[in-house]
Amino acid sequence: MKNMELIQHLLKMLKTDYLLNPLQRQYENVHRVAEPPGGPGPAQLSPSLAAMSLQSSTPEALRVVNLLQERNLLPPTPVPAPTPCLPQDLQKINCNPEVFRCTLTSIPQTQSLLNKAKMPLGLLLHPFKDLSQLPVVTSSTIVRCRSCRTYINPFVSFLDQRRWKCNLCYRVNDVPEEFMYNPVSRSYGEPHKRPEVQNATIEFIAPSEYMLRPPQPAVYLFVLDVSHNAVETGYLNVFCQSLLDNINALPGDSRTKVGFITFDSTIHFYNLQEGLSQPQMLIVSDIEDIFLPTPDSLLVNLNECKELVQDLLKSLPTLFGKTMETQSALGSALQAAFKLLSPTGGRMSVFQTQLPNLGVGALQSREDPNQRASAKDIQHLSPATDFYKKLALDCSGQQVAVDLFLLSAQYCDLASLGCISRYSAGSVYYYPSYHHQHSPAQVERFQKDLKRYLTRKIGFEAVMRIRCTKGLSIHTFHGNFFVRSTDLLSLPNVNPDAGFAVQMSIEDNLDDMQVVSFQAALLYTSSKGERRIRVHTLCLPVVSSLSDIFSGADVQAMTGLLACMAVDRSVTASLSDARDAMTNAAIDSLTSYRQSVLTIQQPGLLAPACLRLFPLYILALLKQKAFRTGTSTRLDDRVFAMCQLKYQPLFYAMLMIHPALYRVDDLTDEGALNINERTIPQPRVLQLSVEKLSREGAFLMDTGTVMYLWIGRNCHPNFLTQVLGVPNYAAVPENLYLLPELDTAESQRTRAFVGWLRDQRPFYPSLHVIRDESQLKANFMQNMIEDRTASALSYYEFLLHLQQQISK
Amino acid sequence: MILLTMVARVADGLPLAASIQEDEQSGRDLQQYQSQAKQLCRKLNAQSPDRCTLEAGDMNFHYLIAQGVCYLSLCEASFPKKMAFAYLEDLHNEFYDQYGRRVPTVTRPYSFIEFDTYIQKMKKSYVDSRARRNLGSINTELQDVQRIMVANIEEVLQRGEALSALDTKASNLTSLSKKYRSDAKYLNTRSTYAKVAAVAVFFITLIIYVRFWWL
User: Membrane-spanning residues where (chain B) (predicted)?
Assistant: First the structure.
């Protein structure tokens, strides 16, 4: 009988040989396959988990900390993400926390348990992050569960070699014949060794069933404000130069199309048809009923018309040099741009420098400068008109995403304008008081941001779906997208700098489950016209005791999720409601800890070690530009900070909320990292208190988008000469934003450190060197969260306030 | 007006390139036609005629098969057939030059989507077709008209299914009738045996009766 089976297998292999050869060739594309060295596979999931007891969860996480007594809570290095308490072989293949993170790494078994713990449950994801290693699989069949359509992932269980059990809906599925063969190891009959089952993050090349229409080409449309104000700021020069420099690096293939529209009180289109000797400008002044002057040649193929495009970019800045137009018809320009892009879809980049005051979508100035520092409620956080939201939804339906660049010194009602990006999966960039002469640091930041924006990876006509194990359900989504049908997120463009957050609740008790899984699947068209699916799967254990839930709490993820929830609450209810809600979150969780988990009642404010930074982060949020009251904050700055809190992935949002402070005048090579043969010093992260500053030192504060280098009055002259190249403190220039490249060891170390910090993020943080008398000192000092200010409590006072509320 | 063009590999229906006339003024819902086009590409095989026109409502599908690749276009019914096929021929020549050799080796759908730029240009030159040169090139293709078969798209899409259903039914019938025949034969022989046995039993009892009663 065994011989018969062998012969049958052999026959089957011969029959499927035609299919196998292309498979084999395509597997050369798999970049890296993680093979666990021996060890039980996921098929042995249940017994190994049953054997593992939760004492292996580190007691360190539950160590009781009295926040009132211990002052040095910050670890010397950036806070790492907590590791879920899973058996080692599962945790090794689990999803990277930079991509997929949960606020509670041990999921409560029931909703009532979650309510008792008083902590938010949600996921934070960064699905399109630039990854250095990404396994790519081309397969004729993509194996998915028949009922819930989950992609096969490392956490399914194989019942025997022919059937697999879905880890989200527990249905048993058959393993298709092609899946039994593993081209990487050229072996048959071991489906659990295939790359789809060995990697939690994987990308599939999608077959034609996943396409509603042939893959769209990369289409880029630039909508530029050319009113008098815009020409004054001089941004057009920087933009045109940047685009000229990067025109060959725009993601796309030979079908890439570009177009340009400029506008002030009329709309100007540019005919770039191949064969014309120079670009032709067509002006449409009927802004009430906008139409396209010619049916084609407004969006042209980049490869064929490159010279014309370059000519246009060279002449644009001078074309409007003498303009005296002060009106801006942004709404009509957006409608015209939408008409132009709606046949194919693509990306629209809008550059605006003033409040739109003409035509549809005109806005009023709603901000009252006298109310900036009011301690009461902040008004006008919600949009004034739904024109921009409606237009964004239309754009989303035609696969057009709108990115907004706001370069303005006056109030621009970002609360209304921002809607155009929020619902069409675009991004908002904000450069307050941009001027080519008066703010060179902004110019540099704009340049570098443009370079990243034009050349970064992009995905078109994308949709994303997040699935979770039966029993859990997702109810609220945060980020820039449009939610179509309960859990399908429509993303006309997906970019590597966008983060998303979701809130979950537990519908049915997770009684007989030991682990739950979450899967995020992103279906997109790459800029080269390939349809791909990126799948991330995260697996977390289920626990039934409150102390286990507390030991698995991820304080940074919780802060990020609370920030998103607070932004929503500020817009729907009021800012003071949101502030109270955040404070209550801290109070509730610590109260729950004290009552339910602590066995010995001690005096003081007690928290588990994993939540020791929670009050500090809540205080940081309360003092953040988005939520602070009593300090003068421009409304646009506030709204932009709120947009960023919802849009940024967690790592950068945390830098925004709680900046990192380092002492840089005494950098040593002790404990330095060695990357690419450069030694990067690793100074200790300091607390954000003036206590830690010293007149004799120089300190670097990293807030994500901006870095401040503060020089103490009595700073060692060695630092000044070796790093800044000036003889003494008085000679430090006023607006220094570049570290001079000197040949000294200290200069090299400082620049290596700053460069390393900059390399860790895709956008470019500008650097400001400030002294005591500098205007930016106020910005620097505002980030000193632990200190008392005129309108806010110090950290210690906040802790006392919490303690008082808890013992009530 | 040419609304949709698709280039696919005949062997397995894998789409290689495509172009859709996305025009705000036309405003037609091409989704249904697109799925029909995809289905059609899958149904075609080496036995299908080289050139064919299929009627689908008030539109026509024209397709041309050459060297294992199918070139399909959806045009309005008023668009002249000769021009449609001249257009497809042109596409074939250009496509074969650029990508012909690589067609059997690709597995990813729309691997040659970059051919779209050429399709767009071709489409434009054929649609702006008051040009004499187009008419001239069409006249020389007149003899091809006789080779083009006109059929209804529904027939083609359903054809395969109907035929195979018929085939299975017919073979079913054959086997069933064979079975019936052998069963009938079997029953016949059995009943013959039963009859013979009954007669034999009767005679034996008669003989025994005669033997014992009369002697």
Answer: 193-214
User: Is A322's pLDDT higher than 90?
Assistant: no
Chain A residues whose CB is inside 8 A of the B99 CB are none
Whether A530 and B108 lie within 8 Å, measured CB to CB? yes
Residues of B in contact with A24 (CB under 8 A): none
**B137: contact with A, CB 8 A cutoff:** no
pLDDT in tens, A60-104: 778 888 888 888 888 888 888 888 888 888 889 999 999 999 999
B12 touches chain A (CB under 8 A): no
How many helices (H) and strands (E) chain A has is answered by 24, 33
Assign residue A749 a region: left if phi > 0, alpha if psi is -120 to 50, beta otherwise?
alpha
Which residues 79-108 of B have a C-beta within 8 angstroms of A? 105, 107-108
Q: Spell out which chain A residues touch chain B, with contact meaning CB-CB distance below 8 angstroms.
A: 22, 26, 138, 140, 205-208, 211-215, 217, 253-255, 295, 301, 304, 339, 342-344, 529-531
Pairwise CB contact (< 8 Å): A140 & B34:
no
* Upper half-sphere CA count for residue A90 (Cβ side, 13 Å): 26
- Write down the mean pLDDT value for chain A: 87
Give residue limits of the domains in chain B: 2-165, 169-214
Residue A567's Cβ-side half-sphere holds a number of Cα atoms within 13 Å equal to: 23
- pTM here is 0.84
Residue of B nearest to A304 (CA): B117
Domain B2-165 has CATH 3.40.190.10: no
Sign of the torsion angle spanned by Cα atoms A52, A54, A55, A59: positive
Cβ-based contacts under 8 A for chains A and B: 55
On the 0-12 / 13-18 / 19+ scale of CB atoms within 10 A, A292 is middle
Region B62-87: mean pLDDT is: 88
Decide if A89 contacts A540 (C-beta within 8 A). no
Q: Which two tokens stand for residue A434?
A: 């941009």
Is residue A236 within 8 A of residue A226, CB to CB? The reply is yes
Pairwise CA distance, residues A389 & A416, whole Å: 8
> Is A140 in Cβ contact with B107 (below 8 Å)?
yes
User: Does ipTM top 0.90?
Assistant: no
User: What's the pLDDT band for B165 if we cut at 50, 70, 90?
Assistant: confident
pLDDT bracket for residue A33 (50, 70, 90): very low
Closest chain A residue to B13, measured at CA? A208
Nearest to A664, CA basis, from A621, A728, A705, A711: A711
Interface touch A22/B109, C-beta < 8 Å: no
pLDDT in the model for residue A1: 54
pLDDT in tens, B21-36: 766 545 456 778 888 8
Q: What is the 8-class DSSP label of residue A704? A: S
Q: Is the pLDDT of residue A518 over 70?
A: yes
Nearest-10 Cα torsion for A522, A528, A530, A534? -20
